[in-house]
Each structure stands twice: as C-alpha cells, then as structure tokens.
C-alpha cells in the first residue's frame, strides 16, 4: 500500500479586541516566542510568527489529528492566558 503524505499550511491572523494596542514592545518578543511554543506543543510546525501592537500573524502547519477551529481555539486560549500573567496592566487583555 502506498504511503500518503500531506501538509496543510494555515495563515492565521488574530486581532485584539477593538484593535486595542495590547502587544507592546515590552512583551512582543516573548509573546511571539510563546506563540511558537504553543504551536509546537499542539503538533503544529510554526514557520513564521509576527505582527503589530494590535494583531498577530502565524504561518503554521495543521496537525493531522486536529481541525482548524480546534487549533485556533487552543492557540488563542493559551496565548491570552499568557499575556494576562504579564502584570497588572495586561489583566484585561482580550
């Protein structure tokens, strides 16, 4: 039986609530590193992570055993929790 291989790449763009400038220079680098780690833990290979103060771009692969909606949900949940742990100023991050 022949082996089947596939790779699906996804470009995700998440914006902050009301496009507020939550991703400040003080957390931007660590935030992008954390997004990379979250993707890796989910079995998604992050190829590029970047963005601005109010949104982030992620180019990653879709794991074979996960739907797009589940991948998005887990990345957004994990990163939002992380941002909120970065001090009093970030507790209302959305």
Describe the main β-sheet briefly.
3 strands, antiparallel
Distance N to C terminus: 48 Å
- Counted up, domains total 1
Number of helices: 2
The CATH topology turns out to be Alpha-Beta Plaits
Strand content: 15-25%
What report would you give on this structure?
With 94 residues, the chain is α+β, with helices and mostly antiparallel strands. The protein has a single domain (9-83), classed as Alpha-Beta Plaits (2-Layer Sandwich), CATH 3.30.70. It is built from 2 helices and 3 strands. It has helices spanning 25-41, 68-84, and strands at 9-15, 46-51, 55-61. A 3-stranded antiparallel beta sheet has the order 1-3-2, with helices on one face. Strand 2 and strand 3 form a beta hairpin. The longest helix has 17 residues, at 25-41. The model has no long low-confidence stretch (mean pLDDT 90).
SSE diagram, text form:
Layout (H helix, E strand, L loop, with lengths): L8 E7 L9 H17 L4 E6 L3 E7 L6 H17 L10
Antiparallel strand pairs: 1-3, 2-3
Quick rundown:
The chain has a single domain (9-83), classed as Transposase IS200-like (Alpha-Beta Plaits, 2-Layer Sandwich). It contains two helices and three strands, in the order E-H-E-E-H.
């Amino acid at each position: 039986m022949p082996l089947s291989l596939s790779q699906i790449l996804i470009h995700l763009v998440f914006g902050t609530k009301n496009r507020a400038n939550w991703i400040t220079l003080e957390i931007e680098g660590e935030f992008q590193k954390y997004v990379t780690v979250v993707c890796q833990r989910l079995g998604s290979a992050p190829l590029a992570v970047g963005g601005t103060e109010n949104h982030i771009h992620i180019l990653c692969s879709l794991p074979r055993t996960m739907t797009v909606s589940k991948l998005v949900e887990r990345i957004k949940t994990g990163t939002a929790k992380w941002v909120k742990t970065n001090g009093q100023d970030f507790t209302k991050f959305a």
